[in-house]
Amino acid sequence: MGCLRLKKVLLAVLLFLSISVSSNSAVYVVKLTGVINPPLVDYVLRGLKVAESHKSPLLIEIDTPGGLLESTRVLVIKLLNAKVPVITYVTPTGARAASAGLFVLMAGEVAAMAPGTHAGAAHPVSFGQKLGKTMEEKVTNDAVAFLKNIATQRGRYKPFLDKMVRESKTLTAQEMLKKGLIDFIAKDRSELFKKAKLQGPVYKVEPNFKEKLLLVLSHPTIAYIMLVLGFYGLLFELSSPGLIFPGIVGFLFLVLGFYSLHILPINYAGVALILFAFLLFVLEVKIASHGLLATGGAVSFFLGSLLLFDKLPNVMKPSSSIILAVTVVTVLFFLVIVAAGIKALRKPPVSGAEGLIGEEGVAKEDIPEGSIGWVFVHGERWKAIALEDIKEGDTVEVVGVKGLTLKVRRLK
């Protein structure tokens, strides 16, 4: 028992010295906000590199519902092996370090929370792990061991941490402090600096343009919508060749959509079902199936959309309402817009005088029945055979064409 207390005292002394050594140096700040995914981890790790290059502490301000387990593991390992002190801080009031966020919080050399924040609910299911009972138990045990190692490394392991994984328990900031899982509670950054013995200037490491773009593209809902819009654009171009713009925009959306899918763990069965749905929609337009193919396409598209991101945590998945809305819009898109374009392509081309049949014009002179005179149609002068007596100024209708001569009759 005395040995354990001695270890805690030594850890506290080492922690104080590690922080106080840099107490007068700059403190670099990054924000771990939103879902933890590869682009967000890359941004935080860039902040760590900046802090290490200046031999200054890194403050990670956390507000996350969780995220991808593998991305979290990459980040935590880097934090545990950082060459500078790392302070993790759940802020502002109302923020959380849920699921994967708990692992990051515990990885800080100093861990703190603002009043009114909470942490926990770190069961592997919340990371998007949908497994059989045996495999789920293995993954859960692995997550428990990982969190235990992190907390032990930082000298703040308590058995209750296991329940935060196995039973998805959640604790408030006060409860976390009472159980010894964090070092202190700080209402704001100023109080945090005071308690952590930090006095240097603060430098925020903001996401650069590339990181901001990737953070947007890596959002599953954005990726899903871009993928669908890409197909819309290409198919609209194919149904109405020559417009060019829909094809270019569709291609760009498809590239960005597939790039986003490359970042995220996806179910390829979902991709296959969505592609199959588009095939059924095209066939419905070309073949009269009385709606059977369209119905099959709608079902395939909806199921594919649900399966596409089933490996993701629930906080990352597109909502069912969005998927349903996109499915309805997709069905209407094919049955109305694309169908109209394809039907237009099937019509025989009409040009020159043939294209004037049914158009109206004005007689430029008196034209007796059976005679030829001049009429003005579509801004052009045409020779016309009168099928009845026509007076100058009468409105006429083109009812036929003979060579380059129109056949016209007077509109009653």
Architecture blueprint of SSEs:
Layout: H1 2-21, E1 27-33, H2 38-53, E2 58-63, H3 69-80, E3 86-90, E4 96-98, H4 100-106, E5 110-113, E6 118-120, H5 133-153, H6 160-166, E7 170-172, H7 173-178, E8 184-185, H8 189-195, E9 202-204, H9 209-217, H10 220-239, H11 245-263, H12 268-286, H13 292-308, H14 320-346, E10 360-363, E11 372-377, E12 380-386, E13 395-402, E14 405-410
Parallel strand pairs: 1-2, 1-9, 2-3, 3-5, 4-6, 5-8, 12-14
Antiparallel strand pairs: 6-7, 10-11, 10-13, 11-12, 13-14
Helix pairs in contact: 2-3, 2-9, 3-4, 5-6, 10-11, 10-14, 12-13, 12-14, 13-14
Q: Would you write up a description of this structure?
A:
This protein is 50% helix and 16% strand. By secondary structure, it is α/β, with parallel strands linked by helices. It folds into 3 domains: 2-211, 2-enoyl-CoA Hydratase, Chain A, domain 1, CATH 3.90.226.10; 219-343, no CATH class; 352-410, Beta Barrel (OB fold (Dihydrolipoamide Acetyltransferase, E2P)), CATH 2.40.50.140. A 6-stranded parallel β-sheet has the order 8-5-3-2-1-9. Strands 10-11-12-14-13 form a 5-stranded mixed β-barrel. The chain has a 3-stranded mixed β-sheet with strand order 4-6-7. Helix 3 links the parallel strand 2 (58-63) and strand 3. Helix 10 (220-239) packs antiparallel against helix 11, helix 12 (268-286) packs parallel to helix 14 (320-346) and helix 13 (292-308) crosses helix 14 (320-346). The longest helix is centred in the C-terminal third of the chain and has 27 residues, at 320-346. The chain starts with a helix and ends with a strand. It is found in: Membrane.
